[in-house]
User: Fold these one by one.
Assistant:
Number 1:
Amino acid sequence: MKKILSLFMAILLICSIAACGNNPANTTISSNSTNETTTPNTTDTTGTTNTTGTTNSTANPNTTGTTNTTATPDTTNPPIIPTGEFDDDNIVLSFGAISDIHLEREGSLAKFKKALSQLEKNAALKDKDGLDAVVVVGDIVERRNQISDFKNVFEQSGLEIPLLFTLGNHDQEIGETLKLSDFYNVLGSSYFKNDVESPDLSSGNRHCVVNGYHFVFVQPSSYYSNGKDRVTFDKKTVEWLDTTLSKITKENPNEYVFVFTHSMISDTCYGSNYKGAVYGGSDSYWYTDDLTDVMNKYPQAVTFSGHLHFPINDERSIMQTNFTAIGCGSVSYMAIENEYNNVTGAKTTDSAEISAGHLVQVDKNGNVKITRLDFTDRTTFKTPWIIETPNSENTHLNKYTAARGTDGNSAPVMDGKAQVNTSKVGSLLSASLTFETGKDDDLIHHYKITVKDADSDRTVKRFTYLSDFYKYATPDKMSKEMTISLGALNVNANYVVEIVAVDSWGLESEPLKVTVKTSSEEEETSSLPEAYSDIDFAGGKATDSKGNLNISIKGATVGSAELTFGGKTKNIEALTITAKGQYALATFRKYSTSNISSFYNNEKGFSVEALYVNRAPSGTQGIFCGTQQGGFGLATTDDGKPGICAYIGGASYYYTKDSNVASKTELTHVVATVVTLDGTTYTSIFVNGELVADDSKKGSVYVGKSTNSFGIGGDTDSKGGAADFPMTDFSIADLKIYKEALNKNQVKTAYNNALALFN
């Protein structure tokens, strides 16, 4: 029946196009025909013709559209099928709407394959003809050679249906700056058989028909303007879109037309007003204003967009204004607003585990059902959206409006238990909050946590934490308890902690309050933890007795040296540098350049202990440094002051240093501690067993271009050595790393152990 309807609609379309003065020789209208000719339009915006291609070749069997595969339903996780106005027994069109598959990323090929499989299975549950098309809304590849991967995965799926797509910013402006012509050249003309107008291979604009329904694709001319993220469409594209939609809707006023563009149209669905954020600064915009005036003229239009990767189980992912707008999420990974304490760079720690998209179906009456698919767990998110066939009164636009946030929506409720626990981390009192999550008529999007001084009512800390709604099919599967870090608290203080739940529409609960009194500082242990690394200079070699660092020597010598510490002189094994360019390089075995951040920013912190003498202090010089545009270093500054030079919170040095100059003749015992608690990094410097400086700065230790190597007697350089900030007359007799921040009593023990070497 779908094929008969499709043929009938195609005949009507041929007639209407001919009546409008189009040349039928250069148009293809039937999704089921195998001998059409499509002449792609490669004329650029200046009007210069670049390429003309005529395609009468045998069609690719995977895009003929003559056969629909009926798949075995996925009975393990069947989708939720609604009752009501949508006629599941008479479906005339089924297509997948997915976005951001990012085939340049590891694992994305498998995710794309899985998405195709799930689309096929879920379509076949109610549609006897199965899936009719798959549409990808941009960010497919970054390199030309990845287009063949795109083609191969689709053809290996066995789907003999149209694969339609538009390009995104990663296709167009990141990587090799591709155009639609690059895809045409790799995929071949058979992939463009459903274009009823010659595709503009330069601009990327397309008009296709599948089973009689119109699919319109538009691409931005740029995602960047004047050094800022600005999604812009050129005048030619905007006018073409208006003309195309006007023609379609005049001929089919009571039928939906589907519009696809990578970036969202402003003031529509979830993410469409997002700016400031991820890769750019506060002037970065992830939406467009250029299409609003045109789209507002066509209540029959349903737009599909990606780009943001925002979770589609948030009900704001469908929004009806003067038209219907839908966010497609992402096949590759989820992203979200970059404004939560548990979100970094718009990603959660499990973002890569989230893969989602839509199955879109139309019944014989023109109603549309959108089923939200969870490709990761092979199930569906919540219940499908149903939009009624368009009508002249536009009442079909009344169901999914922004009014859902207030009309009939209830605020969350926080009525569970909460408690604050404290523990010692180095010399800090670390606090964590555990609370029972709230209740809502839909879902809780995030939580606001405020820590106040109970005596003065002064707010001392604020936190915003994203809930885990994004990874569950239904809200009832969300975590029932949540634990977050409150960072460091003062001892002998009274606090009130308030927890407010916020739903996706911004409605807030009444605060759940918990009081906590921190006790006087408990007795800290003086026992040292086992060192993660302990550099041994015995036998004329530098080796890590723990086996976690590889040590290489460049010019420096290792052997017995006469050194003084605590007023006593002794011959002791040490590494000695006597000239610029001499150093040792220590490289982590278990931490690579890609995961070294987890060493810096683990919940217990880390410490570096050094017993050294710098006989020729000059500016900044590295004791144990790995700060190549990121990272951490124990160094001497200002004519010999030992301190920390690290990147914290961004791409610039941040110093914590002693106010006293170390000895130029005797060994100095230094311990540097670093610990990051809830987005704040605390640093301390101990010299000869005493705390001499401590500080804190918002942010974690920044990695940047840092390596997993550290210079001993210098800092790492861009060539893989450690020739930056060199020592010129330097000896080091002991060097240890601890995978936790030492407290003052432990530092005292380490100092006494060093003294014992000379006793």
Number 2:
Amino acid sequence: MQKKSSTSEAKKNAKKNATAPSLIQPQQKKFQRFEGSTLFRHRLVLATLTHKSIEIDNIRLHGSADESGSDEKNEADKETRNKPGITDYELNFLRLLDRITNGSYIEINETATNVKYIPGTLTGCTKHIIHQCSLNRGVTYWLEPLLYLLPFSKEQTNVITLQGTTYHELDVSIDVIRGVLLPIIKRQFGMTDIRIQLTRRSLPPSGGGEVTITIPIVKQLRTIDMLDVGMIKRIRGLCYTIAMAPTLANRVRTECNNVLYNYISDVWIFNDSTKRHELQKHVPKLYKDKISAGYGLSLIAESTNGILLSVHAQHKTDADMTAEEFGQYVSKLLLQEISYGGTVDTTLQSIILIFMTLCTEDVSRVRLGRMTKHTVHILRLLKDMLGVTFKLKEDSETGTIFASCMGIGFSNVWRQAS
């Protein structure tokens, strides 16, 4: 009797595994249609995870940004404002998506204003992949989608190296990803073995930077409950200089300390310097003698409950601002971010909300300080593609917003099928 029951259970499991890919085949026959270039990456990522075919039409049809913005921060690159269709970095992202999937179908029309995408098997990295990113965006433009996709891929461990620009004003700082997002993913969502190694820092347009990420697969993501901010107990920071005098970092750090010491005494800002000759071997020939120089600052505040809040700013070469004024400016940005009262900082809101929808079938809760337009667009997209509706409730005392949702219980269907 025991043998019969065990064999029957094995047959049931075999049927489940065999039908897992077949259940999503009918979804490929119908295209879910979108218009405009808004949330281009996120549409493709969610289509890959849910295995839905999508069509994106009227991409910068008149050679300008959409009303909601051509990218995640409602801004458009000056170089692409007068060019219709997808940009070079969006095309580069499609190439990366094709490398980590098997059997995907991507069709772009002649004017590049229409893209059809039928996702294939999410295989992940069958070997160590080295991907050359476009120099018009930071490497986090490609890194962020990989954080959603690779944990649910077919390969046991995925290792990929992204080469290009590590900082860009339109993208999240790599230091914020490593110092804030990575601890949240590990502690809250249960992806404990993920690693991000920063080999070289660089600025646009010369590039030359390199980031290597190692992402093992997971069965499911844990739900989170991040409502209590706590009290800020320490502030840490990193001031980096690239192809510039390291003394600039000391000037920025001194002014930061003068401002932040009025708020808390436990403040420490580190310096990091990347020299010009370190990048000359890794930049395109066009920029061998024109290495992009600059400096920037990332600040992270940690609370007694383990909440991390961050800001990042990059000094603009055309800005009439001294190093001391820049340090004072970024310090005030951090204090402003803390005053919002959220448990997730403004730049990482959308990333956390997407992870919340993929969690197990239970309620995840988070406190948001100030909702951005990009976050609103993400919430609408999650409702359209995943059917997840967030419950938003404002706290009358603090002015913060409680955001909660029921996870869809997303699991690694490709690993089960294998």
Number 3:
Amino acid sequence: MSKENFISKTRPHDSAYKHVSGFADYTDDIKEPKETLYGAIGLSKKTHAIIKKIDLNNVKSSEGVISVITYKDIPGRNDVGPVFSGDPIFPEKKIEFYGQPLFAVAATSVELARKAVLKAKIIYKDLNPVVTIKDALNKNNLLTKVKKIKRGNASKKIKNSKNFLKGNFTTGSQEHFYLEGQAAFVIPKEDNNFLVYSSTQHPSETQQLIAKTLNQKSNSINVLVRRIGGGFGGKETNFMTSCICALLSRKTRKPVKLRLDRDEDIIITGKRHEFYSEYEVGFNDEGIIEGLKIKLASNCGMSPDLSLAINERALLHIDNAYYISDIEVSNYLCKTNIATSTAFRGFGGNQGMMAIENIIDNISRHLKKDSSNIREKNFYKKNSRNITHYGMKIEDNVINEIFSKLKKKSNYKKRYLKIKKFNQQNKYKKKGIAITPVKFGISFTTIHLNQAGALVHIYTDGSVHLNHGGIEMGQGTHTKIAQLVANSLGLSYDKVYISSTNTSKVPNTSASAASSTTDLNGAAAINAVSKIKSNLENFIKSKYKIYNKNPIYKNESIVFGNHKFEFKKIIQEAYLNRISLSSTGFYSTPKIKFDKKKFKGRPFLYFCYGAAVSEVSIDTLTGENVIERVDIIHDAGKAINPALELGQIEGGFVQGQGWLTIEELNWKPNGQITTFSPSTYKIPAVSDMPKIFNVEIFKEGVNKEKVVNKAKTTGEPPLMLAMSVFYAIKDAIASVGNYIISPVIDAPATPEKILMSINNLKNKIK
């Protein structure tokens, strides 16, 4: 693809009409044969305990129940841990979190199945649970050894710095709250094979883990996914539902559908990792960080899952957009008795970013300077101060340009002064403003995952069938990849059809995660197309004696200089001459090389950059807050489909806003989660969105690396733009004390926490 071959065309999401009209099929919409059974899971009512006795006789005799399974009915591996073991499908003796699956039933209806599981009689021996990060740290309850990352001599630099601060900070957990919950539908086939429909971000691993559970070969399991109703990382490794469903289907030899209701989904599944940080920082009078020591601790829940990779990404983003010459980071992975924490949009990067942004914010308040200026002074530069603490040279830095452009376009300086004046004149209502940057690395940090495959067919009528390993979960992946393929062949978009992601067509795929789905699968699709094009071109050149001419694919034709061939006709001609019109494609991300033990190298192909200005108002009597205005500039490179990218930026921001201001998860001291339903766990509504919402794609953006269309992803990075909302709230709170003291507040900044922070501030200045 030439450097000039940019698509950048706006077109609707391929399922947009189906989404709003209800015609989009999800796992639970698949038509069921008459003999279909319905699954339900029996959950633990204890957090940490030994199972003394489990009596399921009343369950088995319950109306409509056809089969009941426990760990004894698992013919293969009783563990769905994606990387490390520790996630039993059903525990044999020890319960590790409240709501842990203990058994499952298959019944003739959903209602009867759910009623049946409530009839179990279980006798427990209680054990003392560990629920919080602080409890885990006090008991040294860790999943792995403490990891330390060093560059320079942070202790010495801090000691010799003119200014010093220390403190702590917490970012809370977050429930995925995808619109489509966890669901699976398994249909037995001949030869003990199984067809699996699953709401998953990772069909290949779903296939592999079901095979291991059933003690079968992977080729006996075929997983199909047309679309999922949101994932956000919560469907990257949660294989429990699919494996239980497969076990029920295997035992009954009937089709089985298993769909968790919302309460069960929240109770059973993992959340975003809560992170706690303690820091010491030394800096000069200009606010430039000279030395930083920081301790990061995360609540990983009862098993490893993806916690090692998530914490690695937190360590890789502890710098955000800032050069820190001397740094020492200690990382603690806390094992607790809650559902295993898992991937969530940002994958640890945003927790690391929030930690450093809190430090930058506190430095600015200590020096009584505008935090935007302190941020700018610490930015990575183009030709110096451009090596990260893990040794990667930043070659695509545009944060200075974006930040400067946004400050000017949003009229930040004038509004900053206006807000200060407003706060002097108003006693109970206060305003705040903040601008924060984002630098986010793109690639899986587990290197072997940076690969993708595709399968492309061109039929004799000139239509194209494409299958790839990516999952469409609302982000528009199918639309963008179809655009890429159509553009490469010079065809209209409607000539390309993408079918369900299918493990029998494209094997060994990576999860649709790490903001890499379009980059990877789009490149694999183009690779497949290039092979077919090569076959076509060689045929045309040979038959029509065309030499020294390169083809141009446009307007449903292939043009060689003065020779023009209608695409459909030349395809038919190629077929009659036995030319292959089908090919697989493959792509692996180049340049990636990272030593995890030394924590050195290049873990990312490129970085995404962006910045956001947020203005908020708070009620100092109630803590209630309103987002008055948000301005965003985000680098999407040469966007494949600007409309979809804008949607991702807006949606990501609002989800991040929810994480940092609204969404609060709570557990009782005994480990029982209390925020497990829409009535107790709130996500942002339309009324919570910014009153004024200006979003712009960085017009000068272009990816310097060889990626499809020179585009950059907008999957995860926009979520971090919402940091500006949190620090605008913190700015508003600071005005209560006339900006003399830096407020203490953890995320999420709920009205209750805002009010407590205000009261704490008032007590300090008395």
Number 4:
Amino acid sequence: MGSTNMLFFFVSESKWPDEPLSSEEKSFYQECKQYYHITGKPLISTSDEIFIDNIELTSASLKFGIDEDYNTFNVQEFLNKICSILSINTNDIQITKLQNGSSILEILIDGKKVNIKLTLNKIYKSLTEKVQEELAKLKVFFMFMGNIKALNDKQKFRSEIKLHPQWNRVYDVGHIHWTGALQDGRDRGKYAYFCPIGWKRHAFDVSDNYDEKFKGWSICYHGTKFDYGLSILLSGLAPARIAALGKGIYASQSIIYSTHPRYAEIKRIQSSDEKTFFKNGKYVQFVLQCRVHPNNIIVVGPETLEVDGKVTIDPNLTNNVIEWVIDAKNKDLMDFSDPSSTIVCTGLMIRVTDNHPGLLTESQWWYSGHICNNKNCCCLGIDLSELMKQKNNGVKCNFIYE
């Protein structure tokens, strides 16, 4: 949390351009608002340059989407509060744009006065849950840090996704389906790619020469929290960063293993906004689909959920080669969207079900290992005793594709 002292920033409305939002921007920000209404937090994103050591930044911007009427939005009051929350020195910034369509405020950070990367990294690391709640109280539904061109490119790509639904995939019998290792002639390294049955994939724009870039790179999965997955799905922004654990990032060749509630949060679909978006589903999970070169996999080891040899987790793999550790190259934060990274996220996997996914056949292995009610450990989305009751009563669960 920033300083509790109010920083006063006096502005003149004639000093910056006043322009409407483009159709692409309107669509993008509308979906950011959906995230805000569902989660109660702003969608926060950054451009890649902030975290790349060998790129120098002489200027960068902060961009805020505020759920306020443009004609009544008090710019000065907002700036006073936002500078206090984020501990920004008002002498180091200037307003460059205010756009009509909600209130979209763009602020330039002067690289001649401060170290851009240190400033943005400090802001990024300060964005705790408490700070995000403070931003939400100011009705901030979107916040971006970095190169505005990068944001514009992402918005353009998001609009293109909508116009090209063939980029998305549904995996199941009657859709895209295969058994065993996929044999399609593409080089995915020495680790096989198995059909992620029950999942829908949304593709990311990570490379113009996709097949050439990822020749020899294997597919793996990384479970994620609901808020994180939803921000990717609604905004179209490739995932930003994830803290590396120990010497690397944990992933798996098995999507079945990656969907355990310790790794992939199970979210009950409750609010009207969620029901509008996920239609007839009752539960949703997100998993990141990634590419990694085998040379960057430093450990191929056994499961760590105490299943031991009691059951087989994934029929395509043995339990002792199901968890990978990816080399993080000594980075505290790994950029999953950087094509030069050791692990690159290429898609968001979504599973929507009409009942709790713990009732699915492929989830029955959970009960032979560790599973608990502690939300800091297993994000079940239901009380474990209630789930066990449904399981013992033979309650079924089905996939929902919409």
